[in-house]
Amino acid sequence: MQIDVQGLSVRYGDVTAIDDMSFSLAGNKIYGLLGRNGSGKTSLMSALAGYRKPSGSVQLDGAPVFENAAAMRQVCLVRHSADAADKGDKVSYVLEYGAAWRDTWDNDYALELAELFKIGLKTKVGALSLGQRSALGVVIGLASRSPLTMLDEAHLGMDTPTRYAFYDALLNDFMAHPRTIILSTHLIEELASLLEEVVIIDAGRLVLQEEADVLRSRGTEVTGNAADVDEFTATLTVLSEKSLGRTKAAMVYGTLDDDQLVRARQLGLELGPIALQDLFVHLTDPVGGKR
Questions:
Q1: Using CA atoms, how far apart are residues 89 and 251, in angstroms rounded to an integer?
Q2: How far is residue 75 from each of residues 1, 104, 131, 167, measured CA to CA in Å?
């Protein structure tokens, strides 16, 4: 599902959550939507799902999503838990409701996921732990097989083994049934290997949209003798530094040119990749970030 956003703004009274944002997302990819708390991630996802009348344009496959029942049936937005479910409803009813709403629903897969996450079908939603409610949201999102599936901090409350089971299930099902998936998360490194493209927003504005591998190539860790590292990084943007005796490691932002690579070899420096999360922190730093 192709997503086209033009001039989108979302306001709550005097507060601007999304400020004149424009971008396009191609179909059949896993996107990471990254931003600090209050950056506008949830507001953006709500607009993409057609939950609010946009100021600007939000189109899915060329059709506006707001007040368009056909388009909205192709979208599934899951927040950090199954928050739309009544706490008195049994899990089985929640899954039946999902099946009734979406033509793409795979009930066998929903039951398989419920078993994987140890969610009892006869259990009432209100009796589930936070992690189980989050897992139920994941069941709804993945089993919907919606052409546009959005998971907004869906992992909250899950323990580490459950999160990893979620990541494996998501990747395996995406490979078998490609669709457009948008993941909002603060656990960037845990999900980094799944992301094909990254969208970073900050204070309601688009900071960057780029393929994950291209973004990673912008950062380098430089390690070696402290004096040599200082010489090499003197004209570069240094994100952070760590020293141990005479050895120093510096994280720098920016693609190194051929002359710099040659100089690094001459100085005996080791060059390595840095984490996507470190780049995100730098790009959204209100003081030192490079936009």
A1: 50
A2: 10, 10, 24, 20
Reported as a single tens digit per residue, the pLDDT across 175-230 is: 999 999 999 988 899 999 999 999 999 999 999 999 999 998 889 999 999 999 99
pTM of the model: 0.89
Domains defined for the chain, CATH in brackets: 3-209 (3.40.50.300), 217-283 (3.30.70.2020)
Among 212, 216, 202, smallest CA distance to 289 is for: 202
**Of 24 and 283, more confident:** 24
Tokens found for residue 194: 């799944």
CB 187 within 8 A of CB 155: yes
Burial 170-207 (b: 16+ CB within 10 A, else e): beebbeeeebbbbbbbbebebbbebbebbbbbbbbbbb
Partners of 76 in the β-ladder: 149
Task: In whole angstroms, give the CA distance from residue 286 to residue 134.
Answer: 31
Query: What distance in Å separates the CA atoms of residue 81 and residue 67, rounded to the nearest whole number?
Result: 25
Which amino acid is residue 88, in one-letter code?
G
Alpha-carbon Rg for the chain, nearest whole angstrom, is: 22
Mean pLDDT (whole number) for 21-33: 96
